[in-house]
Amino acid sequence: MIPSILLGTANIPNNGGELRLTQRENDFSIHLKGVRGELMNSRRYSSELALAELGCTHIKGVDNSKVLVGGLGMGFTLAAALKAVSTSSQVIVAELVPEVIEWNKGPLGDCAGRPLEDSRTLVHLGDVAELFQAKQTAFDAVLLDVDNGPEGFTHADNNNLYSIDSLHAIRQTLRSGGVLAVWSAWHDPKFTQQLKKAHFKVDTKTVRAHKGKGSRHTIYLAKK
Ligand SMILES: C[S@@+](CC[C@H](N)C(=O)[O-])C[C@H]1O[C@@H](n2cnc3c(N)ncnc32)[C@H](O)[C@@H]1O
User: Is 47 helix (H, G, I), strand (E, B) or coil?
Assistant: First the structure.
């Protein structure tokens, strides 16, 4: 088997452990050191695209829409959001780990067509949760893919993101009719209930990992 080459390492803030970027032939992987697992692989990205396509359906062709993507990963969701919105729109991408942004400025950026270079992209370096604290109406869509599902995986602090208080705060940052879309590797009916408790209208979609094949992932679509 062809070995992976280690391209970079990064410390996840708040003692979250080590994030690693590796390459095997043309495929890249961002994963947590040890047995904790993979966050993103460049071979499978259909459901990451679907997160943005489904989460932005309601703003197709709408002028001056504003979308928040958390986090950057390999940029597939960001690229799909930019494709889904109008030329006058803005897409903010929040990324916790500075090195992930640097990796996307290097060869990794080719995977999704260098969405960081789009003039509509604005980068927020930090925890996506910071952008919900003001509780001010700001976004037409919030697209969350920071863990592998609605529980802290990248670091334990992310558990708070899916709490009822956080979901209320996210709802407050959405404009009327706005959508919170959450990517998950599994279907969790308890999270649907949690979204409903936060007064969202909830729909879930099952999407395949890559081009109609592979694992089944869930996209939660929660409408204000
Ligand atoms: C699964 S990857 C995202 C994959 C991305 N959807 C794509 O299309 O490539 C998760 C990303 O979220 C970042 N992240 C994790 N927790 C975060 C947080 N609380 N705020 C912002 N970014 C976060 C990770 O560093 C990683 O880059």
Answer: helix
Answer whether 14's CB lies under 8 Å from 25's CB: no
Local structure of 84: helix, strand or coil: helix
Which residue's CA is minimally distant from atom 8 of ligand 1? 76
pTM for this model (two decimals): 0.97
Return the best residue to mutate from 19, 32, 38, 39 for the ligand 1 pocket (most ligand atoms within 8 A of CB): 39
For residue 43, what pLDDT band results from cuts at 50, 70 and 90?
very high
- Is the pLDDT assigned to residue 35 strictly greater than 70? no
Q: At 210, is the pLDDT very low, low, confident or very high (cuts 50, 70, 90)?
A: confident
Give the whole-angstrom CA distance, residue 49 versus residue 55: 10
- Contact between 38 and 30 under an 8 Å Cβ cutoff? The reply is yes
- Main-chain phi, psi angles of 25, to 5 degrees: 50, -120
Ligand 1 pocket check for 39: Cβ under 6 Å: yes
Residue 76 beta carbon below 6 angstroms from any ligand 1 atom: yes
Whether 91 shows a pLDDT value over 70: the answer reads: yes
158 close to ligand 1 (CB < 6 Angstrom): yes
Closest ligand 1 atom to 111 CA? 9
